[in-house]
Amino acid sequence: MNVFVEPSDALPIVDLEIALPVGSLQDPAGQEGLAQLTGHLMRRGPRGLSQERFEDRLARLGARMSVEVSMRSTRVRATVLRRNLEPLLALLGDVVWHPALRGSDFSKLKRRAEAALTARLDDDQVLGAVCFREALFGEHPYGRTLSGHTDSLARISIQHAKEFYARNIARGAFLVGVSGDVSEAEVHSLVASHFPKVRRSRRNTSDVPATRARRGRHVVIVDKPERTQTQLIIGTLGARTRDRKLFPLLVSNTAFGGTFSGPLMQQVRGVRGWSYGAYSRLLHSTQRDAWYMSTAPAAEYSADCAALQLDLLERWVDGGTKQTELRFAQRYLINSHCFDRDTASKRLEARLDVELLDIPRSYVDKYDQLVARVTRQEANNATRARISDKDLTIVVVATASDVATSFERLPGVKSVEIVPFDRN
Amino acid sequence: MGAPKVLIDRLNRGVRKRNARWTFVRDHAFGDALKLRRLRLGNGLTVLLLVDRSAPTVSYHTWFRVGSRNERPGKTGLAHLFEHLMFSETRNHPHGDFDRLMEGAGAEANAATWTDWTCYYENAPRDALPLLIELEADRMANLVLRVPQVTSEKEVVANERKLRVDDDVEGKALEMLYDNAFRRHPYRWPTIGSMQDIRSFTVRDCQEFYRTYYAPGNATVVIAGDFNEQKALSHVQKHYGGLSASRPAKPPTPAKEPSQRGERVLQLTAPTPTEKLLIGYQAPSFSDPDTPALVIANEVLFGGTSSRLHRLFCVDQEVALSVRGSISPFIDPGLFEMWIFLREGKPKEDALALLDGEIDRLACDGPNPSELDKAINQLELSFLHSMETAGGKAEQIGFYETVASDGAAVFDRLAAYRNVSADDVKRAVSKYLRRSRRTRVEILRKAP
Q1: How many CB pairs under 8 A join A and B?
Q2: pLDDT in tens, B80-125
Q3: Residue numbers of the domain that contains A88
Q4: Domain CATH number, residue B390
Q5: Are residues A179 and A130 in the same domain?
Q6: Residues 6+ positions from A397 with CB-CB distance below 8 Å
Q7: A324: closest CA of chain B, how far (Å)
């Protein structure tokens, strides 16, 4: 049965979710943004209710609803006051299985999506993140943006959205998750009354080719005027979800740049005060996803900061992590793990992730043991095997004329490309 | 929770130092199932306890009654810089120890500073509570301020300012709004401070600030989550009981802001792809009896996708990508802020006319019963969400204690929303959302 329940009577609210194993990886080439547009179109409400009446009904129930599309999933989420659970659940089911998918809503949504792309230009962190994935993954589907770009949006019609819905959602597999002030029996009864017969979720094995790193160190400057500060992202490929080296790498990365006390934060911020934040992150998916460091140094020492980070990276990869640092990272990961499950909704998300994203169940059930048993040798071997300090993508959002020369001089840089920030 | 008298007698047994003796103040109901207990240590430290065993975690908040309102021109940003310095070395722990010990225990430690307060908090596994108490008590009294740390943190804060203000069009516009909406009150300067002031702070400035504001009598400790009350109080007694009772000098009362008599309009030209409007109406203080009605008005106008202005601006007319409104939760009167993020090529004059039309309509007709219902249900949902974790509960309690002088008043606020009538909303909108009481920042696109 693909219905998951996490009861908790701590508060008189209930969170509900219908999760579908379909995301932006299903966007046809040239129609990037289709999965997200379709999800947002569903969110405009079910057949028989104008958008205005749908929104009114939601608000009067004391409910909120969202549709979140990622690379590999679409999650229709709602939260509601306990006393209004049943009508909200019925409405949620209608949104997913009887959406209006009106042409007039679609036209407005498309204009909104285009306007959002323009508004995004204000956000340097988002500009940096989007450019980083595009530069790192190139033509690979992992390099696509969820929201597409101006050209791809222009190619999407209401018919495409309806076909996408019919093909991937209407008769596709789904999971139901409910957490909060509700019993298992009540959920099963309500789901049976209001939702179609639950279809077993097929494992999400979206067939994407292996990701490949570009050889050498490549700098991309996202050129934006009047930047006194820069957004700097330096990274390469990381690991696959089902990589045996994932947990050793997770521990190693935590020791390097996953905490405030780690060498990355201490050297960049603690000693020099160069950036408000300085962290490294390890992402994983069915193919190798990204590993990256992010900082935000002032323009005048942005290249110095990049050079320092490259030096720290080389020392981490070549010299490895010390035993004391490793133990510290393990303690941190294990002790703070309680915050991944301190609410019913977080516990529910973990269970849905296992089913939806093909995450081994042991990653959730035996997390503490998997972290605790990583040895220093395993951590250092995993770092050397997975993190390249030679093949790197370096993205900096800055005023190019202020930083280009200094970034060209960074050690090992093979190319410097300058792209305008508003190239959408 | 045990009976207070027995508990206090047990804790005070054999304790001679007056500063370390507990006084029970009172218990408050906290919703239907929980109880908020208020105690005071002899040195003036207020402690609020909320035992909630729904998760094996604990949240520890220390709220100081000091924020940017306590600064003066030329020294703006000191409260915020000081928040950073509080993570530095103490007489008992070298630099870096605080973060390392916290993270090793699995605790998330952070802090925030605003106009009226500075809050330090940790969310941690329940077993870490003794460590949290020891480290927080230590830095309340034993902070060591030296040139290298102050210099490095000034640079970090300068970078934070660039991130949040100098290179951020919204941050810059907000700074402009408050600087012009207030002429006399300290709310006019930014909490992060001016770049010039940040650069000029000395170690001596910081030491003086510490002596003035960081003392048990100027703080409230909130502990929420899964913990043993007696053990927690015993640890607090042990680590805070030795701190001096010296009460900080009462800061001068901020100058009262004169009532605004005409609209103020400013323009900010920035390298931004779309124009925006930021409008601030003079609004009442957080504790003012009119505030709940204005909060309902905010919900009707801006609360979610069914709100009047979202529908009008973002769906029907398509002049804006998004709109949002909020009322500054300050001790003294603040601003009702409204943002309109225009779409490319949409004239700001049209947007302003639409906004004025809706405000006039609300002032004239008030919300309909359905809108009132929606607003109250949505506020209840937000309130319940804010109470989901131990950290959320501690934050609400600490905030209400510091800004509204009553940590238990958080539930009263929800009751106050339920008592708001359509006439109350009409009255509040007519009184506060007048053009002559507003300051408007027009954010214009700089030609490439």
Answers
A1: 170
A2: 999 999 999 999 999 999 999 999 999 999 999 999 999 999 999 9
A3: 3-194
A4: 3.30.830.10
A5: yes
A6: A124, A127, A128, A131, A221, A222, A224, A227, A230, A231, A421
A7: 11
